[in-house]
Specification:
about 375 residues, alpha+beta, Cytochrome p450, 5-stranded mixed β-sheet, 3-stranded antiparallel β-sheet, about 45% helix, globular
Length: about 375
């Protein structure tokens, strides 16, 4: 059998003329960081499973694969971390069961009132301005204030919590070291004299007849602070950007408050705050295009999955009437983020407060939002005209 000659057997002139092999695409390419959607389309169409060597992970880009991976017990959150996203099996189920009831019933009603009140105060502060940056003056503050209220922490600590969220406190962990030092006195007081807030629920809960350790409580608090902080901050900014980009749909939402939740869900599909969710494979996992090897790091491209044309018609279009926008922005399966309800409440309250206080809100002349980020992504600024 004849084989084509290898590089060493080709004439020097032919070797010099041969074009260099194209490097595989990577998430860390500067052009991709600026605009990841062309790469997402290429991956979905031609390379649904690709090892990204510069990034150090296998990339999953199709909706069906990302959804399956986020719910697959063989794919776990990579260490380090001690938040709910890192717990597995019975430990995860027990801790989740403690937190979920805390965001229901009377606690939820108290939280809702606090979020609405905070949103109203922040929106009213903007009334006297001709223009404002909603990212800096609204989105950065409302989610953190909502979580501070849920936990029953002092309102004056909102600025500190917001700073931590911006510094890398996420729903997957990464809490700064001084978060424990900040929380321990509050945990100690709640154990002696509990109230009706979420922190009290965690401090008085028991697993197998024993209370949660201080470390477990602060780990769960870190999960909720992150989910209600940076992730919701970014998602809220993208939500407002989508509606401001589509004045007709913004007017519809203003006249029909029942559309607020649908508008939020569609924004999470089209422009999720978290574009890349990392997992570690405990065993080989078959997906479109091949098999993820055991021990591998996997990057679930949530930002790509939400624009998959095999799942969503005209996926780049923002449409508040989309029938099924999907639910991947806050995870799936057992690790579906506990902050999803809090985030929806925060976004809805924030939008209603802004529409009530600033009925003429629109883009400032000449302004266009620029989305930034790789793992998390959102507009860097939202410069709006308020009168």
């Amino acid at each position: 059998m004849l084989c084509p000659p290898g590089p060493a057997s080709r004439p020097a002139s032919a070797r010099a003329a041969a074009p260099p092999a194209a490097a595989p695409p990577s998430l860390v390419d500067p052009a991709v960081v600026r605009d990841p959607y062309p790469l997402y389309r290429t991956l979905r169409d031609t390379r649904p499973l690709l090892y990204d060597e510069p990034f150090g992970a296998w990339l999953l880009s199709r909706y069906v694969d990302v959804r399956s991976a986020l719910a697959d017990p063989r794919l776990v959150a990579p260490p380090p971390g001690r938040t709910l996203a890192h717990l597995e099996e019975a430990t995860h189920a027990a801790h989740r069961a403690l937190v979920s009831p805390a965001l229901q019933g009377r606690a939820l009603a108290v939280l809702k009132a606090g979020v609405e009140r905070t949103a109203y105060v922040l929106a009213r502060r903007l009334v006297r301005h001709q223009e404002a940056d909603l990212v800096e003056e609204f989105c950065h503050w409302l989610p953190a204030a909502a979580v501070v209220a849920a936990l029953g922490l002092p309102p004056e600590d909102t600025a500190r919590v917001t700073t931590w969220c911006r510094a890398g406190l996420t729903h997957l962990g990464g809490a700064p070291g001084d978060l424990d030092a900040f929380l321990r006195p509050h945990v100690t007081r709640r154990r002696v004299r509990p109230g009706d807030d979420l922190l009290s629920v965690l401090c008085t809960a028991r697993t197998d007849g024993r209370p949660l350790s201080d470390e477990a409580v602060t780990g769960l608090v870190a999960t909720l602070l992150g989910a209600g902080g940076e992730a919701t901050d970014r998602a809220l900014a993208s939500f407002l950007a989508n509606l401001l980009d589509h004045p007709g749909q913004l007017a519809l939402v203003r006249s029909r408050p029942d559309l607020v939740d649908a508008a939020w869900a569609e924004s999470l599909r089209r422009d999720p705050a978290v574009h890349v969710v990392l997992r570690r494979a405990l065993a080989p996992v078959a997906v479109s295009g091949g098999t993820i090897p055991a021990g591998a790091t996997v990057a679930c491209l949530v930002g790509s999955a939400g624009r998959d044309a095999t799942r969503f018609a005209d996926p780049d279009r923002y449409d508040v009437f989309r029938a099924a926008p999907g639910q991947l922005a806050f995870g799936a399966g057992r690790h579906r983020c506990l902050g999803v309800q809090l985030a929806r409440l925060t976004a809805g309250s924030g939008l209603r407060a802004l529409l009530a206080a600033l009925p003429a809100m629109a883009w400032a002349p000449g302004f266009r939002p620029v989305h930034e980020g790789l793992l998390t992504r959102s507009p860097a600024a939202l410069r709006v005209r308020l009168r």
